[in-house]
Amino acid sequence: MAGLLDAMQGFAVIGIVIAVGCYLLVYEFVLRGLDTLYLVSCW
Prior knowledge:
Layout: H1 2-42
């Protein structure tokens, strides 16, 4: 049972890391998109 709990905890940590990584990627992508729109609209 302890092994199962350890595995679940490990999966939870990996899931959080992946979620944060995806969030940062999307955040950066959106910021760049907004920057590009801003530059285009200023031209």
